[in-house]
Amino acid sequence: MKLSLYFKRFFKSSQSSGILLIFCVALALIIANSSLGSGFQSLLDSKIGFENLHLEYPVSIWINDGLMAIFFLLVGLEIKRELLEGELSSFKNASLPIFAAIGGMLVPAVIYSTFNSGTDYSNGWGIPMATDIAFSLAIISMLGKKAPASLKIFLAALAIVDDLGAILVIAIFYTDQIHWMYLLSSFGIVAVLFILNFLKVKKLIFYIIPGLFLWYLLHHSGIHATIAGVLLAFSIPTNESTTIISPLEKLEHSLHYPVSFIIMPVFALTNTNIAFNNSMIDGLFSSLGLGIIGGLVLGKLVGINLFSWIAIKLKISSLPQNSSWKQMIGVGLLAGIGFTMSIFIALLSFKNEVVFQDEAKFAILIASVLAAVSGYLILNMGSKNIENTEED
Question: Which residue of 5, 32, 183, 296 has the smallest Cβ count within 10 Å?
Answer without folding.
Answer: 5
